[in-house]
């Protein structure tokens, strides 16, 4: 017997806050285009309602959720009901049109925060997420599921190699991308839709830094469309978007709400139509595991030395300039670039110093991945922004015909490039905390545990 329940809670950040995602954005949140929310689906599988394995799948319309916030949520839920902490998968949609907040940890009450942040909202965030999961758990009813994949080619590779050997952050339509959106449909006994889970690998950046309205970006319009189609065919449903292996993937089209609406509507319709043709399952084995991993940190020593020398020389050129506005403007621009580069590396150093999970003597970071099974469906949750090649390797596993790869899951350790990408360099490599080989280590661990899940439950 399969049971399912879903719930949604609006996050309601106030206007006037700083917005997350774009370093070059100026201005504060001035409006709400569409509501940011947390959505939760709880699935229970077993022979009777008193002896079940449960899994909670949660989507949060924010840039990311750090491990300490995720752990807080999971502990609250586990203390209040029979959902194990390790059976909770929390994925951030990675919208760049949400509020700025401390992603890595909830501040303590009384903490002094900048005027463009909201301490009360940040303190309440773990409660809202946990309460939504608990509400979904209270809503359990008999259900059946369908799973399907549909072609959807919004995402494009964003790493372009120039003739000089520089790896630029620029559209590369010949590069690797994932042209498939995965969809899970959950249906009531009367055939009406109860919930949907959509999984696709593409940054939530169709809206650019000039946008000052809160929005879920293109995933929100996909959710709206599939929920609209479900209402036309029965009762209301709640949809969840889980972003995938997006580390090197951006939308092909960007810049307007109209473009985001068009792309999202196309995705939602494609998922609804694919699910309509998929077979139903009334029973499904449910299992979940959380796998601890220790990853090597990237050594920042050489990069810091180079960046500081860059700033020093740029400053020297600027202060020794004899005159001439044209040359002066170029020197100022170069000095600003040097300072920006140094600031980025120093920020990585600060994050490592503050992170309790870092072993500075060994240069290691403790994190985790999540794996789950719903019958013939596998879910792999990775704690950051994995490159699409890593996601495709997981989707190609021989043990499950349908694999959902979830980035930004229960943690945010920033970019997770491939070994090949580290050799090429570029923005994502510069911004990565972990060393080369970390992504491949995650894939190997996930594949091994997927084999174990398959062997253990048949």
Tell me what you see in this structure:
It is a single chain. The protein is of the alpha/beta class and 458 residues long. The chain has 2 domains: 2-284, no CATH class; 298-362. It contains 10 helices and 20 strands. It has helices at 67-80, 119-138, 218-232, 257-276, 301-319, 325-354, 388-395, 419-424, 427-430, 438-457; strands at residues 2-10, 31-32, 37-48, 51-60, 88-92, 141-151, 155-161, 167-172, 180-188, 193-200, 213-214, 238-243, 249-251, 286-296, 358-359, 364-374, 377-381, 385-386, 402-406, 415-416. Strands 5-4-3-1-6-9-10-12 form an 8-stranded mixed β-sheet. Strands 14, 15, 16, 17 and 19 form a 5-stranded mixed β-sheet that branches. Helix 1 (67-80) crosses helix 2, helix 5 (301-319) runs antiparallel to helix 6 (325-354) and helix 7 runs parallel beside helix 10 (438-457). The longest helix is centred in the C-terminal third of the chain and has 30 residues, at 325-354. The radius of gyration is 22 Å and the shape is globular. The two termini are 17 Å apart. The model is unreliable at 47-51 (pLDDT under 50).
């Amino acid at each position: 017997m399969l049971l399912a329940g879903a719930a949604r809670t609006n996050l309601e950040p106030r206007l006037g806050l700083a917005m997350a995602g774009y370093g070059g954005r100026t201005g504060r949140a001035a409006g709400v285009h569409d509501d940011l929310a947390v959505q939760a689906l709880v699935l229970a599988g077993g022979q009777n309602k008193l002896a079940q394995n449960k899994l909670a799948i949660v989507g949060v319309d924010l840039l990311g959720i750090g491990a300490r916030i995720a752990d807080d949520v999971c502990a609250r839920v586990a203390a209040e009901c029979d959902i194990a902490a390790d059976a909770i998968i929390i994925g951030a949609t990675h919208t760049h049109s949400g509020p700025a907040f401390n992603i890595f940890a909830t501040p303590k009450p009384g903490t002094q925060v900048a005027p463009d942040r909201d301490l009360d909202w940040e303190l309440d965030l773990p409660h809202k997420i946990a309460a939504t999961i608990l509400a979904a758990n209270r809503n359990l009813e008999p259900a059946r599921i369908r799973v399907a994949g549909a072609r959807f080619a919004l995402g494009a590779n964003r790493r372009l190699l120039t003739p000089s050997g520089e790896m630029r952050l620029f559209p590369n339509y010949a590069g690797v991308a994932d042209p498939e959106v995965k969809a899970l449909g959950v249906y009531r006994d009367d055939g009406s839709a109860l919930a949907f889970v959509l999984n696709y690998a593409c940054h939530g950046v169709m809206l650019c830094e000039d946008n000052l309205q809160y929005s879920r970006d293109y995933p929100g319009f996909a959710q709206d469309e599939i929920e609209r189609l479900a209402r036309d065919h029965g009762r209301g449903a709640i949809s969840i978007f889980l972003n995938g292996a997006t580390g090197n993937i951006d939308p092909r089209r960007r810049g307007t709400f109209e473009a985001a609406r068009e792309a999202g509507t196309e995705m939602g319709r494609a998922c609804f139509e694919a699910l309509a043709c998929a077979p139903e399952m009334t029973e499904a084995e449910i299992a979940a595991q959380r796998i601890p991993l220790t990853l090597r940190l990237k050594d920042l020593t050489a990069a810091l030395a180079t960046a500081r020398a860059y700033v020093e020389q740029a400053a020297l050129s600027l202060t020794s300039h004899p005159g001439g506005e044209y040359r002066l403007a170029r020197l100022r621009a170069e000095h600003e670039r040097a300072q920006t580069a140094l600031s980025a590396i120093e920020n990585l150093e600060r994050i490592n110093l503050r992170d309790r999970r870092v072993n500075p003597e060994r240069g290691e970071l403790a994190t985790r991945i999540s794996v789950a099974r719903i019958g013939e469906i596998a879910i792999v949750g990775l704690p950051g922004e994995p490159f699409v090649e890593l996601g495709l390797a997981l989707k190609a596993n021989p043990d499950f015909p349908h694999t959902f790869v979830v980035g930004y899951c229960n943690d945010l350790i920033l970019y997770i490039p491939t070994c090949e990408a580290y050799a090429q360099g570029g923005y994502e490599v510069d911004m990565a905390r972990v060393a080369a080989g970390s992504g491949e280590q995650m894939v190997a661990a996930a594949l091994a545990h997927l084999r174990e899940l398959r062997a253990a439950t048949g």
